[in-house]
C-alpha cells in the first residue's frame, strides 16, 4: 500500500534525512502562531525498532501496550502544556478505512491517551481511496513537512521533504478542508482497541 506524495507537493521542496526532518520540526514548532495540522493515512506502519509499546501489542499484551504508551506520552507533556498555554490548535487528521488493521488498533490506544492530554484527533473515512493521500505536517501557512516512507509495503519513515512554497502550503490546507467537508467523520469510540485482534 503506497502513499507516495505527488510531484506537485514536492516541487520546490527540499529532500531531507530523517534527522533533518526531526530537527526542522523542532525549529518550526516554537514559531507556530495559530495551528498545527498532522495528516496520517497509513493503515499499517512499523515504528522504529525498540518501540516497546508496539512490540507488546503485537505479542497480544494490550494492557502492557497501554501502560507503555502512557509512559511514552508523558514525554510529550510539555508540548501539550505549551499548546494549551498558547491557545494553539493541535489537530491530527487520521484517515481510517474499516476494518481496522492491527496497527490502527494499537494506535487507537495511543490516540485515546493523547486526546486526554489535549490533542484533537479527527477520524475521517476519506471520500476517495486512502492510497490517494499522503502524510504531512502543516505549521500555520509557513512551512510543511512531508513524510517519505521509502518503497516498502508497510511504511517506515526514512526522511521527508520540507516545503515553504505558498501554493503548496495552500493546497495542503485545502486537502484538510476537503477531507472534513467530503469525508465521513468516524468516532474513535466505534473502534475498540481492546477488542480481540482480527
Structural class: alpha+beta
- Overall, the morphology is globular
Beta percentage is 15-25%
Mean pLDDT metric: 89
Number of helices: 7
Distance from first to last alpha carbon: 19 Å
Largest sheet descriptor: 8 strands, mixed
Helix content: 25-40%
Strand order of the largest sheet: 1-7-6-5-2-3-4-8
Can you write the helix and strand succession as a string?
A: HEHEHHHEHEEEEHE
Characterization of the model:
This protein is of the alpha+beta class and 198 residues long. The protein is 39% helix and 21% strand. It contains 7 helices and 8 strands; from the N terminus they run H-E-H-E-H-H-H-E-H-E-E-E-E-H-E. It has an 8-stranded mixed β-sheet, sandwiched between helices. It is globular and about 45 Å long.
Topology (elements, then pairings):
Layout: H1 7-10, E1 14-17, H2 18-28, E2 35-40, H3 52-58, H4 62-74, H5 77-86, E3 89-95, H6 102-117, E4 120-125, E5 136-139, E6 143-148, E7 159-163, H7 166-182, E8 184-186
Parallel strand pairs: 2-3, 3-4
Antiparallel strand pairs: 1-7, 2-5, 4-8, 5-6, 6-7
List keywords for this structure.
198 residues, 7 helices, alpha+beta, single chain
Tell me briefly what this model is.
The protein has 198 residues and is an alpha+beta fold. 39% of the residues lie in helices and 21% in strands.
Amino acid at each position: 500500500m503506497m502513499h507516495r506524495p505527488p510531484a506537485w507537493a514536492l516541487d520546490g521542496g527540499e529532500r531531507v534525512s530523517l534527522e533533518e526532518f526531526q530537527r526542522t520540526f523542532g525549529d518550526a514548532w516554537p514559531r507556530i502562531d495559530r495551528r498545527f495540522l498532522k495528516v496520517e493515512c497509513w493503515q499499517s506502519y512499523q515504528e522504529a525498532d525498540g518501540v516497546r509499546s508496539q512490540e507488546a501489542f503485537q505479542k497480544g499484551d494490550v494492557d502492557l501496550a497501554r501502560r507503555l504508551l502512557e509512559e511514552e506520552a508523558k514525554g510529550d507533556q510539555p508540548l501539550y502544556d505549551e499548546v494549551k498555554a498558547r491557545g494553539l490548535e493541535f489537530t491530527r487528521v487520521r484517515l481510517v478505512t474499516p476494518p481496522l488493521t492491527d496497527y490502527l488498533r494499537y494506535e487507537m490506544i495511543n490516540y485515546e491517551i493523547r486526546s486526554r492530554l489535549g490533542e484533537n484527533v479527527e477520524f475521517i473515512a476519506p471520500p476517495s481511496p486512502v492510497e490517494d493521500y499522503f502524510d504531512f505536517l502543516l505549521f500555520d501557512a509557513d512551512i510543511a513537512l512531508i513524510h517519505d516512507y521509502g518503497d516498502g509495503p508497510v511504511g517506515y519513515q526514512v526522511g521527508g521533504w520540507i516545503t515553504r512554497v505558498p501554493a503548496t502550503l495552500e493546497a495542503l490546507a485545502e486537502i484538510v478542508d476537503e477531507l472534513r467537508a467530503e469525508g465521513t467523520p468516524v468516532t474513535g469510540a466505534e473502534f475498540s482497541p481492546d477488542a480481540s485482534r482480527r
